[in-house]
Amino acid sequence: MAMEASMSRNEVIMAVRRNDTNGIDKNYIKQLKRQGAVECKTCKSRKYQDGSNENVSFKSPSHISPQASASRVRAHEAEHVSNAYTKAAQNDGRVICTSVRLQNAICPECGRVYTAGGVTNTAIRYNEENPYMKNQKKADYPEIVGANADYAV
To answer: Which residue range forms the structural domain that includes residue 121?
Structure first.
């Protein structure tokens, strides 16, 4: 018979916090971590850092709780979109397309789903009055055509 059967839930939580887990089922400990009753060391030590060259949040490694990760990462990716609109406006261009993709993961220790990061893609079209740039695009066309293709099987 497992030890937690003779202990109350609070007694099990206190024992896990003291690292006195002998006789306590590992799945029960994982369940307590998932519920937030016991702290997950992996989630506590997880850091987020931006890898872009833009002036946005998370330039230095920062902790975000699993519960807040989706909204914080979404807000961070929105900063990238906002920067694209600012850049386009300053350089006589317009934003053609933006897409944001959030990436989720599962913590191996507690089993919680959290947002692990995000990717923002933007496309900006600039007004080109410069005839040299127009000619450059024409010269580059043979190299670019067919570079991106989607195939369906």
So the answer is: 64-144
